[in-house]
Batch of 2 targets.
Target 1
Amino acid sequence: MRIVIADQMEEEVVKGIGALGQVVYKPQDVKAALQDADALIVRSATKVTKELIADAPGLKVVARAGVGLDNVDQAACKAKGIKVINTPGASSNAVAELALGLILGAFRNIQKAHHQMKGGKWEKKTLTGNEIEGKTLGIIGYGRIGALLGKKADALGMKVISFNPPPRQEDGIVKFVDDLDSFLGMADVVSIHVPATPQTINLVSAANIAKMKNGVIIINTSRGEIIDEDALYDAVKSGKVAGAALDVYRSEPYNGKLLELENVYLTPHIGASTKEAQDKIGAELVRLLNEELGKKG
Ligand code: NAD
């Protein structure tokens, strides 16, 4: 069995996958390496296009180590009888914890304070923050990550509301608000946890930001496309949005104008970057590949 790992992967994960067969790690020419491969593993860097898999007669599985399948042409895989798998739950807690950290950081000006001190300043008066207890957290998309964040925020005394049309999971914590305008008007902090779809792309637009509370905090650890970054820039500049914290961007690596704003806190798509999440992703991949490749031969 030959397994091509096209993208950067933790050493431990590569070792675990090595137990299933011969691993070809980060080949220079992925297309050529696929000619005699049974499985291909990618993260988000490699684009699995029709072209890439055109000459891979033995390829049975394409595995995405992570959640989003934006970089995999699923129709092209299906047409060739190639199963596409991913590890959707493995990084959920890591992302929920990052979102919570970003909320706390934005409420207490932690990142701003850090930068001021590193710049030799001691300006306590500019750093008066807010407490999250009693505030309303509005979660857009109450799925795996959204619900984990809801549970953590509830434990810290926040009220949790969500905009998530059915089907959806009740958990005794969240109050679903089905009218988007009402939802936007109720939240002190809006945290986004939806996939990028035609319905969610640009959901955080200038028009929808205008419906949010003055001084709202916006957190995005889902997909960059959900936010109109120009509209967010204008809204932070005008003070309508008091702060924003982003882990994901329309174009990555991000190098845009939001970097200029003191109240916008940025991380470089590190939602799933914890030791624990990577361990879980590795274990899940090994289990799924075993299942798929064992089944087919
Ligand atoms: P999920 O599928 O479990 O949950 C998504 C939820 O969004 C579902 O409950 C769904 O009903 C809801 N939804 C769909 N369309 C909607 C709409 N138009 N309006 C409101 N709700 C809608 O997904 P998840 O595993 O929780 O992942 C959420 C997001 O986080 C995804 O975009 C994923 O790619 C992203 N993610 C980011 C990182 C990172 O590194 N920052 C890591 C993992 C996942």
Target 2
Amino acid sequence: MANSNYEYVKSFEVEDRLMPSTWIVVRIDGCHFHRFSEDHEFDKPNDERALNLMNSCAMAMLEEFPDIVFAYGVSDEYSFILKKTSQLYERRASKILSLTVSFFSSVYGFMWKEFFPNKKLKYPPYFDGRVVCYPSAKILQDYLAWRQVDCHINNQYNTCFWALVKSGKSKMEAHNLLKGTQTQEKNELLFQQFSINYNTLPAMFRKGSCVFKDKTSVQEVSLVLDPLTTGKGRRYCEVQRGW
Ligand code: GTP
Ligand code: MG
């Protein structure tokens, strides 16, 4: 074999198999989306088209990677949970991460025109990703709760911030007014100054979105769903990809 002298280089490749019998969570996050959302004039604080584009990418992910049992998304990020028993790419971390992030990014660009028919993509959007294994359903629930609490805190702040800015305050003034305020105070501010009842804003903005297959093993899904059962922003995975 002509190349046999060089085959030793393979010994530098490291094993990166993920821990067996653990939930694999891949979290994908838009890279520089602060700038991307400005450059593409997303509505503030929430752009329904952009969120629905993310949801459609997530639906395509569940279709493409059948081991994903549940997905939760907010803003420019989406978390994908693979079943504990998954043997996808022999649980090789680099394979799982690179292929899922690559697929998600491609679908985002591919479906852009469906959600923003009158807005040309100015440059290619791209995403980063990380993969973490969680050993129990309790920790997995806490992971999802963590992401959802983040969604709530950011969304409530952003709703107040942009209401103040749209009413004529400078960004600095809005920031200073909100500094140190608690949840209840922010709700009061919205209600009294802007007649906005925070709790009646769209659930997708307040709680994020979920995607799951209704035919997946009930036990696995119900364990994961508990922290989100009140969420009305759920998206059921109806497989109807048109390409
Ligand atoms: P990196 O992820 O570190 O590259 O930074 P990033 O610029 O993507 O910011 P980050 O992921 O922390 O936060 C996402 C950002 O995307 C938000 O801060 C917003 O600026 C923007 N974004 C996401 N969703 C929306 C939306 O619906 N409307 C608007 N206007 N902006 C959004
Ligand atoms: Mg980001």
